Amino acid sequence: MPLFSYRCTGCGNEFELLVRASDVPACPSCGGGALEKLVSRPAPPGKSAGVLSNARTAAAGAGHFSNYSKAERAKVK
Fold first, then answer.
1. For residue 23, what pLDDT is reported?
2. Which pLDDT value is given to residue 34?
3. How many structural domains compose the chain?
4. Is residue 16 a part of any domain in this protein?
């Protein structure tokens, strides 16, 4: 189910909803059906490599190597 952003033209409330193709969305504040679909901002580029590196460093410092592959464990030990 895709996540859509809406603005209710009746009460001005902005909200996000998971909407199936067969669903008719309604405003959670007033129950109105007159909604504008908003354009969502794109997500910023991920920083997962840095987060993963920091998590692995913290885990290694605590003596936990379960999040490393066998090849990586051999290099660290």
1. 84
2. 94
3. 1
4. yes
- Contact yes or no for 22/46 (Cβ under 8 A): no
* Residues 7, 14 contacting (CB under 8 angstroms): yes
pLDDT for residue 68 is more than 80 = no
Range of the domain at 27: 3-38
Would you say 13 and 27 are in contact if contact means Cβ atoms under 8 Å apart? yes
| 19 in a structural domain | yes
Nearest to 16 by CA among 39, 44, 46: 39
Residue 43 DSSP code: P
**pTM of the predicted model as reported, rounded to 2 decimal places:** 0.50
Whole-number Å distance between alpha carbons of 64 and 20: 42
> Is the residue at 45 inside a domain?
no
